[in-house]
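Methods — Computational structure assignment.
A single polypeptide chain was analysed. Its primary sequence is given first, followed by the predicted tertiary structure written as structure tokens.
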Amino acid sequence: MNPGPQKTCAACGSPQPDNVEFENMPQQDLVTDTSALENAKKGADIHCPYCDTRNPVDARQCKQCGGDLTGGQQRKSGSVLGAYTSGPAEQVPCPTCGKPNPANAGRCSSCGAAMTAGTLQPTPPAPAVARPTVGKRSPALIAGLVVLFCLLAVGCFALISFLTRTREITGTVSGAEWMLSIHVEQLAQVTKSDWRESIPAGAQVGTCEQRVNRTQDQPEGNYKEVCGTPYTVDTGTGYGEVVQDCQYEIYMDYCDYTAQEWQVVQKYDQTGQDFTPIWPQVVLAAGQREGTRTETYTVFFDTENGQLDYITEDAAVFQQFQPASLWFLEVNTLGNITDFRSK
């Protein structure tokens, strides 16, 4: 095991190849040395094009062979090495004498033997157990799935075509119905809740409480910092940068308030079964006003398929239809009129 900042192998002195990946140490100690921190911030190391030794990014000549570093391959950086854990790691026994040693030790403090075999290693995989092969599918199965998919696509297309298909028939206007409505409104006290900044002017504000209004990357006003688990990012220098992503929950007043709003207090309806719709007569009391108006018109047609109806909320459309007039009607599969034109 070689510490990340060490450029060559501690056992044989050979340069570390550029395909050697950095990993988190079992015990992750934060670096406090100023020069080491400055070197880590410079950028990923460069491998010598002649001897493959790692060199600082700002070096001009290889410290191992003296070769020109121009054209050297820079190590990759930015990958996440894993979660950062503080505190001492579990000690590991020396593979030679069995004495416990710190997890980051390169050699045993008792016998001097290399600790490589004694470092914490991932649990080896269990022996392979013979099991049925399920990864491959036979050509017949694949062909069957393709055919099934094609059938489903054709079925969906056929269903859509069936539902949207129309045919033209002739219809005679045989009757009509209509209903016209007018709402009457009056100012009334209402109690609602909203963010203080959104409460209308003149409203009477009641009790308020602080709630999370939004989450953002920068602090503002009354906020709470919420941070994720710290993790280590490979800088390509042998040192890892401990990063913790944080966001800020911005708290604002959420209040109950009382205000006057126009409320519907009455509704006047007028109905008829002819072609001359009339709006209802509205009587307004003091402090009242007319609110929204709604209108619904239904026209009935006698056709070869029986009686069909067409509903509209447009008075101008309704006025086109006159008793006993003839029309070409576009009718879909469900029997609904989708379009019309005068005959």
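Note: The longest strand covers residues 166-195.
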